[in-house]
Design brief:
The complex is a heterodimer of chains A (377) and B (130).
Chain A: E1 2-9, H1 13-24, E2 27-28, E3 37-44, H2 47-57, E4 61-64, H3 73-82, E5 88-93, H4 98-106, E6 109-114, H5 119-176, H6 188-216, E7 223-227, H7 228-245, E8 249-253, E9 259-263, H8 264-280, E10 287-294, E11 298-305, H9 312-315, H10 339-349, E12 353-359, E13 363-371
Parallel strand pairs in A: 1-3, 1-4, 4-5, 5-6, 8-10
Antiparallel strand pairs in A: 2-3, 7-9, 10-11, 11-13, 12-13
Helix pairs in contact in A: 2-3, 5-6, 6-10, 7-8, 8-10
Chain B: E1 5-9, H1 13-25, E2 29-33, H2 36-45, E3 50-54, H3 62-73, E4 79-83, H4 85-89, H5 98-103, E5 108-111, H6 116-129
Helix pairs in contact in B: 2-3
The chains are: A alpha/beta (377), B alpha/beta (130).
């Protein structure tokens, strides 16, 4: 529940107590606000007393009479504007001349309520103001949050980019200082590791570009009829060299053709990532099964591996940016930690879903469900 | 005289390998761990003479957590936090103020790119402080 402070500045006691009465049981809520807003009324008899209350309590809304015993309402308004206080001001005045109205508007008055006003008039004016204040706050909050997420992303990204550079630099220094002696063969291990880190860094940069393009929608999407089977076949071919090296058998179980209205590049990104993970995190002599099936409304793709699997704790975090599961079994496998984040992003764009079943040392199965007629976002 | 033991914890296996290689040359015995979790279980049973922790491992503050835990168990073991973080995020922390020392229970922050001779000097200084 949010409480907004309303300050009434008026020398007529009847107006002040009237406002108090009207606002006491009034609250505002909207379907898009998950809380309702109530009001607390503060009263001032003069402009001077009003300013004191402003300084002490900083109201959100001020109902301001112009004709006051000491300084005039318009001067109170000026005071607020000069200090850039965030107060929505409504002039309540019986002698509203055009001249005054223009000056007050220029000084930032939000609304005019002529005296005498009915409770309904006051309520509807405050309802509008509340909505405006609330939206302004939400916008600001969302902006701050966005900036924060972006900042976190950038700082983690720079960490992820710097780590391989440091490692490679360290190895080059060791070579430069001939730390292992004069036999070139003695440096094989650290040269291999350096190359591995370069590869990891390249993957990271490529994945990051994918992610940025997806998020900013810079890449023009071309929605055509793609054959998913062709796309999965080509992803399997791409992973062949590694699969052969690791003795992993990648099998495709599917009909000849499964059409989907989609951007083919995006489909490629999804299945390249999933199949490459299934091979990378597999074991010697392991199996990867890519099972595609089309139902009336959905296409279901299962990528099942017989690899190292995951703990239940890890399953919850794997779609987050830069998350890589680190343990004895994954230490030598390089990756950007962005792949699954990208996949999830894309699958959601097609109003699809991705689920995971996994058991340590048995393997993982990712199931992607895509609607055949997705009204893609 | 018994060789002094240094615990090094870093989730980057290459950095760990390089640091181990360097510090072994200074004449110390090395124990390594690749994660906060692994380090915690080592600390349970083993008291090193000095510990070097990476800052960002499982979480962004793994290094702080480890220093806190090791200082609680062995208050006299000096702790170095090796990091490249300050330059990346613009975050700065050093141990000059009493307030920082209060919550970051480390004795020294080192940049990961530190030269070997400087590193050796700092280790010697910390070990002789006791």
């Amino acid at each position: 529940m949010t409480k907004l402070k309303v300050l009434v500045v008026d020398d007529e006691p009847g107006i002040r107590s009237g406002v108090n009465r009207i606002m006491r049981n009034f609250h505002v809520d909207y379907p898009f606000m998950d809380e309702h807003v109530t009001f607390e009324v503060l009263e001032a008899e003069t402009g001077e007393a009003g300013i004191e209350i402003i300084e002490a309590n900083m109201p959100d809304i001020m109902l301001l009479d112009n004709k006051l015993p000491g300084i005039q309402g318009i001067e109170v308004l000026e005071y607020v504007r000069k200090r850039n206080y965030n107060i929505v001001v409504v002039m309540i005045t019986s002698y509203a001349s055009l001249d005054l109205a223009v000056k007050a508007t220029r000084d930032g008055a939000h609304d005019f309520i002529p005296k005498p006003f009915t409770p309904q008039e006051l309520r509807s004016s405050l309802e509008n103001i509340t909505k405006k204040i609330f939206l302004k706050r939400m916008t600001k909050e969302m902006g701050d949050e966005g900036r924060q997420i972006r900042f976190r992303f950038l700082s983690v990204l720079s960490h992820e980019l710097k780590a391989p550079l440091n490692a490679i630099e360290g190895y080059l220094n060791m070579i430069n200082e001939k730390q292992f002696g004069d036999q070139i063969a003695d440096y094989d291990k650290i040269v291999d590791r350096s190359l591995e880190r370069v590869r990891g860094m390249r993957t990271l940069i490529l994945d990051m570009l994918d992610l940025t393009r997806i998020e900013t929608e810079e890449r023009k999407r071309v929605m055509v009829n793609c054959n998913l089977v062709t796309i999965v076949k080509s992803a399997i071919d791409t992973m062949k060299p590694l699969a052969i090296q690791m003795d992993v058998d990648v099998q495709l179980i599917s009909d000849e053709s499964i059409p989907i209205l989609a951007d083919c590049t995006e489909m490629e990104i999804i299945f390249n990532n999933l199949i490459s993970n299934a091979v990378k995190y597999n074991k010697q002599n392991g199996i990867v099964k890519c099972i595609l099936s089309a139902e009336e409304k959905y296409i279901i793709i299962k990528i099942a591996d017989s690899g190292i699997g995951m703990n239940p704790d890890d399953i919850n975090t794997i779609y987050d940016d830069f998350v890589r599961i680190k343990n004895e079994k994954t230490r030598k496998i390089s990756g950007s930690g962005l792949g699954l984040s990208i996949v999830k992003n894309l699958v959601h764009k097609y109003q699809g879903s991705i689920t995971l079943e996994s058991e340590p040392d048995k393997g993982s199965t990712f199931t992607v469900t895509l609607p055949t007629n997705s009204t893609s976002l | 005289m018994r060789k002094k033991t240094i615990l090094i914890v870093d989730d980057d296996i290459d950095y760990l390998f390089q640091l181990r290689f360097k510090i072994e040359q200074f004449g110390y015995q090395i124990i390594t761990a690749e994660s906060q979790k692994e380090a915690e279980s080592i600390i349970e049973t083993t008291k090193p003479d000095l510990a070097i922790f990476d800052l960002m491992m499982e979480s962004e503050d793994s290094g702080f957590v480890l220093s806190y835990k090791i200082k609680r168990k062995y208050p006299d073991v000096p702790v170095i936090i090796a990091t490249a973080v300050s330059a990346e995020t613009g975050m700065t922390f050093d141990l000059n103020s009493e307030q920082d020392r209060e919550w970051i229970r480390a004795d020294l922050f080192l940049d990961k790119g530190i030269r070997s001779d400087q590193l050796e000097q700092e280790i010697t200084r910390l070990l002789n402080k006791e």
